[in-house]
C-alpha cells in the first residue's frame, strides 16, 4: 500500500483538516487505482486507468495541487485532482526502462520531483516539461527515495540495502553506504555505523 497526505508548507502553522482528519489523502493498494477519500462528504474519488500495471508509489507536491503516481509500467503520472480525475487529463512522464518504485517531490519547488527505479537510475523531473532533465546512475535497483529539506540532496536506497547520497546541484553521487551489518568495515564491530552530515 502507498499513502500520501497533503503536505503542510514549511513555515505554515495550519494544515487542511476537516473534523480533525486530513483534507487530502491519497492511497493505492498495489493495483491500478488511486483513491482520494473526501472526509467532509464521506465519499471517495478514484483515479482509474492511468497506469497499465500496478501503482508503486504516490505523493502530493509541496503546494498540494498535484499528485504524482508511479508504477510497474515504467511511467509517472501527474494528476491535478482539483481540475479533473480523468486519466486523459493527467500528464505522463516516461524515461525509465524498468519499474518506477518510488517518487518524491522537491521540498521547496512544487514543479520538481525525483523518481527511483529498478533500472538503477534516479531521474529528476520538472513536470512543466515532459522529458527528464537529469538521470543519475546508481549502484542497484532503487526502491526508496527522499529529499533533504533544503532540496540540495537526495538519498536513494536500493534492493541490496545500499544508500546513495546525490548532490542535486551537481547531479552526482557524493557518497554510498551499504547498510547491511554483514558488510561492516574490517574493525569486526557489527554495530558499526557511518554518519554523513549534509548541509
TrEMBL record:
Keyword set, alphabetical order: Repeat, WD repeat
Cellular component GO terms, alphabetical: THO complex part of transcription export complex
Domain of life: Eukaryota
WD repeats (start-end): 48-79, 93-135
GO BP annotations, alphabetical order: mRNA export from nucleus
Family: Belongs to the THOC3 family.
Name the UniProt record assigns to this protein: Uncharacterized protein
Organism (species): Sporisorium scitamineum
Chain's gene name: SSCI21030.1
Amino acid at each position: 500500500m502507498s499513502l500520501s497526505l497533503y503536505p503542510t508548507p514549511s513555515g505554515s502553522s495550519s494544515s487542511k483538516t476537516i473534523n480533525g482528519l486530513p483534507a487530502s489523502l491519497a492511497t493505492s493498494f498495489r493495483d491500478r487505482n488511486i483513491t482520494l477519500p473526501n472526509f467532509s462528504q464521506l465519499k471517495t474519488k478514484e483515479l482509474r486507468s492511468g497506469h497499465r500495471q500496478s501503482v508503486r508509489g504516490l505523493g502530493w507536491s509541496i503546494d498540494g495541487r498535484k499528485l504524482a503516481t508511479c508504477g510497474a509500467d515504467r511511467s509517472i503520472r501527474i494528476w491535478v485532482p482539483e481540475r479533473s480525475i480523468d486519466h486523459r487529463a493527467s500528464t505522463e512522464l516516461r524515461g525509465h526502462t524498468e519499474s518506477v518504485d518510488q517518487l518524491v517531490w522537491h521540498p521547496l519547488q512544487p514543479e520538481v520531483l525525483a523518481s527511483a527505479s529498478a533500472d538503477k537510475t534516479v531521474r529528476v523531473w520538472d513536470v512543466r516539461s515532459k522529458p527528464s532533465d537529469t538521470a543519475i546512475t546508481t549502484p542497484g535497483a532503487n526502491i526508496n527515495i527522499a529529499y533533504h529539506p533544503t532540496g540540495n540532496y537526495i538519498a536513494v536506497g536500493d534492493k541490496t540495502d545500499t544508500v546513495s547520497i546525490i548532490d542535486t546541484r551537481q547531479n552526482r553521487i557524493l557518497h554510498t553506504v551499504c547498510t547491511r551489518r554483514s558488510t561492516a568495515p574490517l574493525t569486526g564491530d557489527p554495530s558499526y555505523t557511518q554518519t554523513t552530515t549534509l548541509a
